[in-house]
Write a structure and sequence with these properties.
- The structure is a homodimer.
- By secondary structure, chain A is of the alpha/beta class.
- Helix content of chain A is about 45%, strand content about 15%.
- In chain A, the strands form three sheets. In chain A, strands 3-2-1-4-7-12-13 form a seven-stranded mixed beta sheet, with helices on both faces.
- The interface between A and B is large, with 56 and 56 residues.
Chain lengths: ~325, ~325
């Protein structure tokens, strides 16, 4: 599992968290009734440590292992089968919460999808990034479940092609017509193909509504504004950072040059040329029509509205 | 040569025209002084026909073969060496005209490039698309010749990566610092890297200023407007179509699905998903700051200004 997370075979922050929780329950199931306590505790701690080290920045991963570890520490003195049972229940609960989060997002956004409409999405904010239904794609799945007929343009999403590889696979497997385009075709698709609106996911959202997401999201929001069509971000409350006032505080990961320089072993950029490879960008709140969240659809002005909807106890 | 044009090893409308002219001169040089007239004429006609069939839509190709054929027909009765000499001279003249066109475009635009500025370009409008210096890139070459220091972001330009492969090679070989980005990073580059402006080429320009160019150009023009930076198109007078009132009359070539579905033999889009692959888009005149042409820099309002600058005799 550590290898699978490290090599991105399991990707998407919620999916990583759920996978880590189940992996820890699996580790506990491996203990034999006769195993002595010290061996059990050593094995458990090593599993937690190894998982935490697999992706250094995935917040959901740390949340998942911390939750499982809390259950382990609370029940370590219990009879063996009781401990395993508790851990399995916690992992399942974590999984169910993620599924329920997706379902709520789907219900909050499905009403936006009219019959015959054409939507556009970027990267993969689908079931392959969460436990089941995703965020942006959860909206499409719920609209489909309600019998809506519509279709989706999926940006291929360079450099790693999550849109072409993952979103196109998910949507077509679910019977939703999907058309893959290169990222640079999105503007022309809006102009010529009557795109009704854009829905993407997000990686981190500030309390004024500025949102970090896969590189290219910012450009899409500008194109949507130019064409007078809505631009929505679908994300659970856990993606909003109550400590973050605005997007200036979001650090942007710049990844290595290899993702741009070659593809499938074939060099595409000459050696003397430089590359720039920001993995994310920040879309200012002013370009965002609304947030589709597990606490409902939130429209501007964001600021206080966001806080009230997402963190009512603060 | 026919094979080279067909397989896009020679690409870019002006470059195709020049290559065809030289190829016909080369065919004539191959005639032996003793060859009978009928064989010569048959060989010549076949060469013209084969070249014309290599790329069905390249206007410069037909212009080049027609010009060479006119010289052949006028001088076919002359002594053999005279005919060959005339054809070689015509091809060289065609080549020189193309070079001079690029030089004039470079001079018209070089003043825009300030020291320390950062520019952005799309696809390849460089020497690899013409006889020597290109259109958009001719501006950078002339600025460099004048001692300006500046750098250029090159969109990789999916699906065929002309920016990553060709523009990055040309600029870095000329000592101009170039940074390749994915197409979806252009907006973020404008926001974070202080891009001074955008210069692209064009494939066909209507008399109101609407311009067809490589897919993605339209989106770049919108992004430039959003950031308040200028968006220029560099093109010779021959790219403007005096018969075309506006961009609605420009047919958009939609290419096959293979360019998107796989890369270097590796499938990137699942079979059940569709693709859309327009090769060009149309940028409305209202988004264009100016045209950098071999007749000077032309600013809005276009309409009558364009006609007067480009077709003064009409």
């Amino acid at each position: 599992m550590v290898e699978a997370i490290r090599s991105l075979r399991v990707r998407g922050a919620p999916a990583i968290g759920v996978a880590a929780a189940f992996q820890l329950a699996h580790v506990a199931r491996g203990f034999k009734p006769g195993t002595d306590r010290r061996t059990i505790e050593r094995t458990w701690s090593r599993a937690v440590r190894d998982l935490n080290a697999s992706r250094p920045t995935a917040v959901n991963l740390f949340a998942a292992t911390a939750r499982m570890d809390r259950v382990f520490q609370e029940h370590r003195a219990q009879p063996f089968t009781g401990l395993v049972h508790r851990l399995e229940r916690e992992a399942r609960k974590f999984f169910e919460e993620d599924l329920e989060m997706s379902r709520r997002i789907g219900r909050a956004g499905a009403g936006l999808i009219r019959n015959g409409s054409v939507w556009l999405t970027h990267c993969n904010a689908g079931g392959l990034a969460t436990a089941g239904l995703g965020t942006a794609l959860a909206v499409f799945y719920e609209a489909k479940r309600r019998g809506r007929t519509f279709s989706v343009f999926a940006d291929e999403t360079r450099p790693l092609l999550q849109g072409a590889r993952l979103t196109a696979w998910e949507l077509s497997a679910s019977g939703i017509p999907v058309t893959v385009i290169c990222d640079n075709m999105a503007g022309f698709a809006m102009a010529r193909k009557r795109v009704a609106g854009v829905i993407t996911g997000a990686d981190r959202i500030a309390m004024n509504g500025d949102a970090a997401n896969k590189i290219g999201t910012f450009g899409l929001a500008i194109l949507a504004k130019h064409h007078g069509i809505p631009f929505y971000i679908a994300a659970p409350a856990t993606t909003f950072d109550p400590e973050l006032a605005d997007g200036r505080g979001i650090p942007i990961e710049e990844r290595g040059t290899a993702e741009l320089r070659s593809f499938n072993g074939r060099r595409t950029v000459p050696e003397k040329a430089g590359t720039w490879n920001p993995a994310f960008d920040v879309t200012p709140a002013g370009l965002i029509t609304g947030f589709i969240t597990d606490r409902g659809l939130i429209r501007p002005p964001f600021g206080r509205t966001l806080k009230r909807a997402l963190f009512p106890d603060n």
